[in-house]
Each structure stands twice: as C-alpha cells, then as structure tokens.
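thread: overnight batch results

M.L. [08:02]
morning all. the overnight job finished for the chain we discussed friday. pasting input first so we're all looking at the same thing
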Amino acid sequence: MCGVAGTVISVGVLTPHLAVGPEAEFPVMAPGRIVTKVVRIPVGGAGPPPTSALALRALTEPQVLDDAADALLVESIDVIAYASTTSAYAVGFCGEAAMVSRLSRRVGVPVVATCASAVLALRVLNVQRVALVHPPWFDDEANELGASYFRSQEFDVVMSAAAELAQDPSLIEPRAIVGWAARHVGHDAEAVFIGGNGFHAAGAIEVLEAAIGRPVLESNQVLLWSALANVDATIEIRGYGRLFAHAPLEGAA
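M.L. [08:03]
and the structure it wrote out:
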C-alpha cells in the first residue's frame, strides 16, 4: 500500500484504558483514510481503572496482552497501535520496546506504541530539551515517571506537569490546552510533548505551535505518524503539527 491514492488504512487500537483515544483523533487527522478497531485490555474487577505503576506494568504482561491482540486479527488489520502513555511510563522505554517487538512477532503485523513514537519524533526533529504537558488526571507519580522515561533516552526534561484544567475530558477544549501550555512552557523547551492518549489534544497542536514557535507533539499524533510509516502509507496530513512534514526515519538515532 505504498502511497496508493485513496488507500484506507486499518489500524487496530490496543489499550488498557476505557477512555476514548486514537479511535476519535485518528479519523479527524486523516479523514476518510483511517478506520480503527479497538480492543480494550481487560483490567479485571469492578473497581476504578489501574493508575499505579505496579498495576500498569501488570497490564503489559504477555498473558494479559496476547488474547487482546489476537482479537484484533479477527478482521484484516494493517498495523496495531498500542495506546497508553502511562503504561509506557511505568515499564520504561526498554520495556515498551520489548512489548512492541514481541507483539509484532506474535501477530505478524507492525506494532507501534505511543511513547516510543514520541522518542523517535523528538529525534527526527532534533530536539534535546522537552517540556511534558499531561492531562489533569495525571498524578505526581505519573509526571515523575514521564520525566524518567524521556531522561532515560537522554532528553533534557525541563518540565513535567499536569495541566490545571477540567478533570472531565469532554469538558476540555483545545483553546484551554493552548492557553495553559503557552503560559507554562518556558523558553528553555525546544518542543512540547502533550501526553495522554485520552487527552484529545490534537486540535491544540497547530495553534500552540504558532503561539510558542516550537514543535508540539501529542500522544495520538505521534502514534498515527508512526503507524503510517510502518505501513509505508503516504497520506498528506495538514493542520496537526510540523511533525507530519518529516519522514519518521530522517535523522533517527
């Protein structure tokens, strides 16, 4: 499917979260060119969704992931997108990379993951100093794990904070994200990564880039960018950041 006009890419979204994420933002960024099938990894029990690092790490274990990944292959899938920022933070870069590699071997299609895609994007954009902006429901532990994740890949994390916005994702408008980030991201940051696949911040990317004059990355944006690259799809995407002007392997370390 190398650049065939009108090609529709089928993306399997694998996530441990109940919140709607890539399945909402992928079709908006690439209208008419993306279809998604979502399988949510069962977390067990009737309590609140897991948020601790220990619980999130448990959700990346093979015995939990494999059945969910297999369920995606009931229909034809071109690429699987593992959509969880916090799980990646909990297992670290190497743990996320190992999970992706193992899943890809098992299911026989490319698998991409949120934070590994963000790392690649930062390298392609030649960014060293990054500010992390997280959704308001991220706690201090998640902010610290995020900083540790990117520092492990030799980035200078100059900020890692949860935006002080509404706790209900449906009440957060892109302009509120832009306003908060523009006020809080310092001049020392060369780029911003807006983490959280359920944050729905794609609509803030272009306006925030214009406001601060630096690249803005977002969880579902980098995930889509990486997914398209892994199926050699040439889909022109405009209005969602300068990242889409770059081929994913340009300048990658």
